[in-house]
Specification:
The chain contains four helices and 17 strands. The protein has about 350 residues and is an alpha+beta fold. It folds into three domains: about 100 residues, Immunoglobulin-like (Sandwich), CATH 2.60.40; about 90 residues, Immunoglobulin-like (Sandwich), CATH 2.60.40; about 90 residues, no CATH class. The strands form five sheets. The chain has a four-stranded antiparallel sheet with strand order 1-2-6-5, with no helix packed on it. Strand 3 and strand 4 form a beta hairpin. It is elongated and about 80 Å long.
Amino acid sequence: MKKFWMCRIVLAAFALAFIAFQLAGGCRKKKKQFYFPVTFTVSEVDPADGETGVGLWPVITVGFTGAADATTFSNANIIFEESGVGVLGATYTPYDGSATVMVVPDAPLSPSTDYTITLTNSILSKGGKPLKLDGVTNPITFTTTATGDIDPPTFAGATAATIGMGGVLVTWETAFDNVSPAPEISYLIYRSTTSGGQVFSTPYAATPPGRLSFTDAGASGSWFYVVRARDSFGNVETNTAEAWTGTVPPLVSYAADLTPIMALSCAVAGCHTGFSHVANLDLSTYTPFDISHNGITDMVIIGNPDNSELIWRLEGTRLPQMPLVGDLLSVAEIQLFRYWIAQGALDN
């Protein structure tokens, strides 16, 4: 009898354990995950198909759902034609990391005339995928306006050129024109290392219509920028207002510029290195500085050195000032860390 009750108790215990196991999820099978790759296709075209009253020297833009191989932007793959005439000459300029192409005719278009843009699947993504044109209106046809325009836009010019992540950001306010609406006004960028030294016969860059900023990713040194507005008839106003960056620092390298400083002052025995790293911060290798440190704040807030704890500690605005042992960092050395954070705290 005793064995009988012992068996029942054991079976009951197993049953309870099994029920608890099932309630906790048991040996659930993982759900299958399905991934839907983004199709490389056309996202927008301006002018739109069927649009009328288009200016006589428009900036035509074609947007894609991803970055394209800019070497495939040509008149063989993006065919620009005038009705009854044939293929026209144009320049093809990538923008937005080559997710947009600007097509600018080599000469003014004719009034009251039909034009077409025909896209081909020879346009490739950066990964080599051909452009999918299923469901895309192709070709796109638009008609130019019956009248011309000789008046340039009214525009105050560039308002600021500021150092940010990835380069210099040049900004401006909207230009106005007597014929072209604001979304059809594009902007030409000129720059020089000296005030008044811009060469206005050749723009440094151009924006798609309607944009109010430009990032000069290649900027290094001190630059003076002038921005001019261009309407859809090709009229360009002639302001000379300059936006100056001050001095733009060259790109700071974590490996070449910062690692030697930390190897001497921070990543030393008893401080932030190897198994002895203090406060769980090992500076002997690149550290993901943007993760929370000691629950206080981020060691590095990317693009914002003024609010990064690393700078507070180096400058002594938050104690204890670092490094604890040896000489404090010089102003020039701390400035390198400031530039590095402002430029994105890259592992470069």
